[in-house]
Amino acid sequence: MNKNLFLKEMRRNASGLLLWMIVITLLITVTMSFYRTFIENQSKIMGMMTIIPKEALQFKGVSNFNDLFSVLGFYSVNNVIYMMVLGSIYAIVLSSNIVLREEYNKTAEYLMSWPLFRSEIFFTKLAVIFTNVFLLNIITALAGFICIEVFKNGPFNVNSFLVLSLYTFLLNFLFGAIGLFMSTIVKRPKPITTFSIGLVLIFYFLFTLSKITESAAKIGYLSPFKYASTDALNPDYRLDPWNLLYFTGFSLVLIAVSFRVYKRKDIYL
Amino acid sequence: MSTPVIEITDLSKSYGKARGIEHVNLEISEGEIFGFIGPNGAGKSTTIRILLNLIFPTSGSAKIMGMDVIKETKKIKRQVGYIPSDANAYPFMKVHEFLKYSKRFYGIENGEDRIAELTDLFELDPERKIGDLSLGNRKKVSIVQSLLHSPKLLIMDEPTTGLDPLMQAILFEVLRSENRKGMTIFFSSHILNEIQLLCKRVAIIKEGKIIKLEDIETLRRRQLKKVHIGFGGKENGSDFNIRGIEEPVTRLDGTFTFMFSGNINELIVLLAAKKITDLTIEEPSLEEIFMHYYK
Prior knowledge:
The complex is a heterodimer of chains A (269) and B (295). Chain A is mainly alpha-helical and 269 residues long. Helix content of chain A is 72%, strand content 0%. Chain A has helices at 3-33, 35-40, 42-51, 54-59, 71-98, 100-104, 108-111, 118-151, 158-185, 193-212, 241-263. In chain A, helix 1 (3-33) packs parallel to helix 8, helix 5 (71-98) packs parallel to helix 9 and helix 8 (118-151) packs antiparallel against helix 9 (158-185). With 295 residues, chain B is an alpha/beta fold. Chain B contains ten helices and 14 strands. In chain B, the strands form three sheets. Chain B has a six-stranded mixed sheet, sandwiched between helices. A four-stranded antiparallel sheet of chain B has the order 2-1-4-5. Chain B has a four-stranded antiparallel sheet with strand order 12-13-11-14, with no helix packed on it. In chain B, strand 7, helix 6 (165-180) and strand 8 (184-189) form a beta-alpha-beta unit. The two termini of chain B are 38 Å apart. Chain A binds chain B through residues 2, 4, 8, 12, 105-110, 112-118, 120, 264, 266-269, and chain B through 49, 52-56, 73-75, 77-78, 80-82, 84, 86, 88-92, 101-102, 104-106, 145.
């Protein structure tokens, strides 16, 4: 890893990271601020929910109405889209550009003329992706934790909160690895941001489709979202070793393949 | 005999249907200013990009200072400066920020004096953002960054693009001075005149192949002569045939102009039997010699 390159990349991505942190934190804070009002109107809401189609609630990740009235249930149901989907979009946009933009901006001619091995460039950029995704997750999880503490009306399971946060990070980082992989295999150096965002949304769509349609249940397994459990109120909720293996294994394989490709890749300018 | 600074052996790069380079062989000695000339698309940048490990050769090998350009790229690059043709440095950085960033890769922690000296020489405003600079000024940034670490080898790909004549003169003066201190220079360009101003030896690359590798002076002294013959409008050229007349022959208002590579005595004997109004035999410019190889 090269310190000079790492610090430059961190500075270069700082404003983007800050913006995403602010947006996700604000969304979490605003959503959680409705929690008190929500539980004050519990009976009315329960009545309303009986007329909402079951599939619509499943789409939101609600399997049991009562989950919504616990602070952790409310947090996981309402914030998963911000933290998991938006976090993954952030990670994939960052990673799909961090190597590739040196090519389409033609700055690779400078980068490759400096005394650096390709492995140093690759792993430094990977470290930047990891650090940025980690920082985004730490700050937004911290914001979520503070919101839960401020708006809660009873105790909540901190372990479950931590597991939920860890799943979010693993999912976000996996999308980071997917972005990095895509950027190394593209033939023509041009931005792939739109495609990357589309990919996250397609995976999220497949996941939600598998939840609301029994016949499509199996296609959910194609989506990484399937392996990031948000069932935080389940008494057995924990970090499933198979899911952990899925995220770490898949991420490592993608990183290894990306590195192999990048190491032997012709940099076209 | 000392190790060549650049040693390219049977180097080829294929881009599928598009042309790359084929069986390029070059050897550049220490302290040499070597010209690498050819039109756009001839394979100059491909050769340079292999030297810098931006792309990989299909076959053959290249060494810089005896080190393999793939395996020992980091060691090599510590001693190499590079001026790319496009000069697209990071647009969000200020000039001084970019130069400091660049020098840190070479482990130079100080070097402020060198930055100040070079930015002053090339009249660069260190506070300007690179993205706001003209092509010429971006090129100057590129030149300065390539010289910061006083490399042993400087590789330049069309270094004068965008530079005004005054700046070109300053660049050439700096290059001569660095060369006197021992820097080897690999100068790639499609403009022969600037190559002849600086280089001692030149390789001409055409369609991915080296077609000529020669001293500038030898190239200039070759038998090739430029001949103008005035026939007063009477000669149609039908009986004007002698070995050594190189096509194309231009005929304009009774004056024939052509390059002649044969025996000049035979030409004079032939012309003695004809009525001519004018005869000029001159040394062609390097540009004309170059074009001759490219016809």
